[in-house]
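Worked example 4.2. Below are the chains of a multi-component assembly; read each line carefully before continuing.
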Amino acid sequence: MTARAMPGRGGFAALLAISAMALTLAVALAVSIGEMRIPLSTVALSLTNHLGWTDAPISRIQDSVIWDLRLSRALVAALCGAGLAICGAILQSLLRNTLAEPYVLGVSAGASTGAVAVIILGVGAGAVSLSAGAFAGALAAFAFVALLSDGGRGGPDRTILAGVAAAQLFNALTAYVVTTSGNAQQARDVMFWLLGSFGGVRWPEFQLLAAVIVIGLAVCIWYAHALDAFTFGDDAAASMGIPVARVRIVLFVTTALITATIVSMVGSIGFVGLVVPHAVRFLIGPGHMRLLPACAVVGAVFMVLADIVSRSVMTQQTLPIGIVTALVGVPCFSLILYRARRPA
Amino acid sequence: MHLRLIITTLAGLAAAAPALAEPTQYPLVLENCGTTVTIDSAPQNAVALGQNSAEILLMLGLQDRMAASAFWPTKVLPELEEANAGVEILTVEQPTLEGILAREPDFVAAQLPLLLGEDSKVAKRADFEDLDIPSYLSPGICNTRDDAGDIYGSRDQLWNMDPLYQEIDELSRIFDVADRGQALIADFRQREADLLARFEQGDSTFLFWFSSPSEGEDAYLGGKNGASGFIADLLGARNAITTEAEWPTVGWEGIISADPTYIVAASLDRDRWTLDRAEAKIAFLTTDPSVSQMAAVQEGRILTMNGAAMNPTIRTLYGAEELADQLQAMRAE
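Applying the procedure described above to all two chains together yields the following structure tokens:
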């Protein structure tokens, strides 16, 4: 379709297979590594016990650490990585902007306002969880962006400007609430929450996230060809018979829902959504039918590994995951950028 | 003042009562922050999350039954240093659940919902419940949870030590050392009463200066109804700051116009901000061209206090005592 040579179908299948294996390995590593020293045999037995293959007696605390903490956390990390990478890829195509990332629609800023409203203002009087508040805030910010950008019909630039305006507005609201009614400890809580961490996730979060990501990914792949057409501009897409406005709205809403779910669960985690799609495009080209599944797997592996680093570098304490994704990700991305440089 | 006298007398009487307490009957069932906690036997391997929870357990002489502690914003109380030396500190920051579970605790006491609660990144109560590990959250913090706008933000009533006494009482019964708990509460109440009796209610005001990021920048102060306000009340005075926020940030123009009688320069153990140390605060107060013109500075009415006292904890009483001695010496001059 373009002058640029595309890797063959076999190459893509191989990449998917390697990525799937890498993901399994990464999750296995995540379940085996932690502060509590648990022999690998116990880890294996815990997993097989839960899968119903064995019925070996193991310590309840160790079993709970392996299954309820490490495994649920690794799988949630994988889903978050997958979700953020897909959203980044889609927004970069829809907005035809290489700097677009999942938070471009203002959801991260909105989530922080929602979280602050719950933590500091006590909205919901303890009955509303922080996550629910953050989710509501994220959707409010997205609604604001949708309104300003005329449901995406105003064109990519207008959507990005609307996103920037929403981020400014909601960040200002957050800062206003923190400075006028917060205390130092609360400000720290908010900061910590915003930086992102997988510390609070368990199985219920995994179930919800799995449903959202699977449905979201399916919707996005359904529109993969339409996304390819968008690369050439709205007019070109329309001339190919694609209902431009409808596709754009559906995809905006899908990415906003995925991102809002992730942000409200684990805080905002930067870098993955921006960079993984670019890295994958360098490797397999821009066709969305391949790009989206590949982004999902690569994003998942990357996030699981980043989470292992975040909870291993300091004893007894977790480094915010966003710091790790950037510290680990930037050198990787620099290498890809360097190797993909075009001859002058 | 009549009311003060009555309260003082009553508190003194209560404190004088001998500390006799029944041994705990297990299983002990407690309502704690909306959760029913069942303790089957006295904990032998407890983990304390949060400095205040840890210091209460140490004051109850339970160091041999503590596996570990975490989250220490400031140094341990000097008289507890020796007891605390034998208890592992997981981290002075927020610990991880896996790190806590690795100590195989049979009881977990936490100071803040940040460390134990639905929205906590450290642990949820269900995490421990699923493993039959009873958990306990400081009642002072959860009592305010249901009031909108008051999770730990502002207070519309002056803080007092009652929730801490409830916590000491409950923890002592959980560990079957109720007599020690009653003795500790009686001691604290007596000390409160002594302070109230030492100072006449007057018109003087206190400014509690926690810290500032740099010289001249807006100062973090203790609010009207928080622990700082309670300290001022014990000393027969008021907080010069009248906003209900627990930790208001106020510019120096506002502080100068509030014209406090006394300025309390908090000393913090950390070195995060330029003005964390009391000496740095005093240097700024006495050298800044406009701030140094305040009456409190001109007449040398600057006191120092450990900043930990400005958090609503057992340390609050220690802070009040620290100020009381300086105040008395100053007034005697």
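Take a moment to check your reading of the output against the notes. Residues 178-198 of chain B form the longest helix (21 residues). Residues 71 and 291 of chain B are 35 Å apart (CA to CA).
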